[in-house]
Amino acid sequence: MDVMNIAFYTAIIVSIYMAWNIGANDVANAFGTSVGSKALTIVSAVAIAAVFEFAGAVLVGGRVTETISKGIIDIHMFDGHEHLFMWGMIAALVGAAIWINVATFFGWPVSTTHAIVGSVVGAGIVSGFWIGGNGLQMVSWGQLVPIVFSWIVSPVTGALLAFVVFLIVQKTFYQSNTPAENLKKYTPYMVFAVLVILALSVVYKGMKNVKLEVSFPVVLLVSVLVALAGALLTKYLVARFIDKSQTGTGIKTQFNQIETVFKYLQILTACYVAFAHGANDVANAVGPLAGIISVIETGAISAKSQVPMWALILGGGGIVLGLATYGYKVIDTIGKKITELTPTRGFSAEFGTATTVLVCSYMGLPISTTHTLVGAVIGVGFARGMANINGKIIRDILASWFITIPLSMIFTAIIFYLLIALFV
Q1: DSSP code for 136
Q2: What is the pLDDT of residues 122-136, one digit of tens each?
Q3: Distance of CA 286 to CAs 71, 136, 197, 338, Å?
Q4: What is the pLDDT of residue 90?
């Protein structure tokens, strides 16, 4: 078997390994709060996530994706050294996957996008030195500034919004003398807001790779109509549910009704997060693979590469497999270790996350769904008082965020030199 064939099959294997790690770490974000609040069992969460993650990855995952994440290294410096680019991308996938695997082992939710960015930086630096130049010049360091900025923007914004949403829920239902009546009255409005946010998000974030020739007013109109239909259906279902289950006027009975209704709202938002994640983050596994395939087939490097459908299927399948076999680690952290969650708290965190991601995407601000959700869960816990937050877990998670890029770089550099020693 020649070197190119070895590189091709190696790239496929490490892409699946990367996708497996994305599933084990990132996908747990979508359903960690649902499992922690007991809205879903771990088995049902995996089953639902599998459907939406795979659908997002295969149906609307980028058929044309960036070979080099975020344009952080200058691909033209690889002219005449395409083989180094190929092995560098393989090393980047392995380096990022190893770090994510380590983080998942400890139950730390980290940004897989930041991991692949760190790995690509590491690959660019060591490739530059190997070529004989200044490896540091291979990297567009200014592109890393927004990523560092997102470490603050993402969790703080998520925390603030989830904090506000949870306080509204508390004020509207738990601090009311008529919680059941308020549930009938206000739940349709909340469903309307949720569905507008999710519909807009699916189009502008979850389906950003599908070139839709639709103007914003049309998308907004469709979103509003869908949300209106959902609100009207909710009004009927909630009224029927309360009337059938109202065996007494006890406050505990009414509080249980509130949590039951919010359980379904939480699952709805979790499905969106899973779908959007599959659509966007499958590129972290198959983007470098597409670039490697391009080099093997044409001998040239392209900033953007066509992603074969079989690669999207492999990526989506790997993500699902990762969640099913190892996702319980991060699910346990998100759902149970940061703060105690109930459906209303979990909904506040999920809705805060979805809204933050949408708004920041519109504004062009860097955002990490992982960091946003962790911040949102912390915000919900803070709304109940500092004593309800596990400070040690938060400290460990924050530390893992700051070492993601440097450790991914280091792992990639080591793997790169090993690959070069074996195959070049």
Answers
A1: G
A2: 998 998 888 877 788
A3: 16, 26, 28, 32
A4: 93
Report pLDDT digits (tens) over 315-331. 888 988 998 899 989 99
Q: Which domain holds residue 101?
A: 3-423
Q: Residues 385, 92: contact at Cβ < 8 Å?
A: no
* Contact between 330 and 109 (Cβ < 8 Å): yes
Query: What pTM did the predictor assign?
Result: 0.86
Q: Which residue has the higher pLDDT, 310 or 148?
A: 310
- How far is it, in rounded angstroms, from Cα 182 to Cα 110? 38
Q: At what angle do helices 309-326 and 27-36 cross, to 10 degrees?
A: 30
Alpha carbons 384 and 144: distance in angstroms, whole number: 35
How many residues make up the chain in this entry? 424
Contact call for residues 163 and 383 (beta carbons, < 8 A): yes
Whether residue 188 contacts residue 198, with contact meaning beta carbons closer than 8 Å, is answered with: no
Q: Give 127-162 as a DSSP string.
A: HHHHHTS-GGGGB-GGGGHHHHHHHHHHHHHHHHHH
Q: What average pLDDT does the chain have?
A: 84
Per DSSP, helices labelled H in 26-132 are 27-36, 42-60, 82-105, 112-131
- The amino acid at 69: S
Residue 337: Cβ within 10 Å count: 18
Is the Cβ–Cβ distance between 368 and 117 less than 8 Å? Answer: no
- Pairwise CA distance, residues 152 & 147, whole Å: 9
DSSP 348-361: HHHHHHHHHHHHHH
| Count of structural domains within the chain | 1
DSSP strand pairing (64-66 vs 304-306): antiparallel
Angstrom distances, CA of residue 236 to CA of 180, 184, 194, 241: 14, 9, 17, 9
Give whole-number Cα distances, 379 to 189, 208, 221, in Å.
23, 29, 32
For residue 291, the one-letter residue type is: G
**What are residue 305's phi and psi, to 5 degrees?**
-130, 145
Helical axes 145-169 vs 369-383, angle rounded to 10° = 40
Contact 12, 314 (CB under 8 A): yes
- What amino acid occupies position 297? E
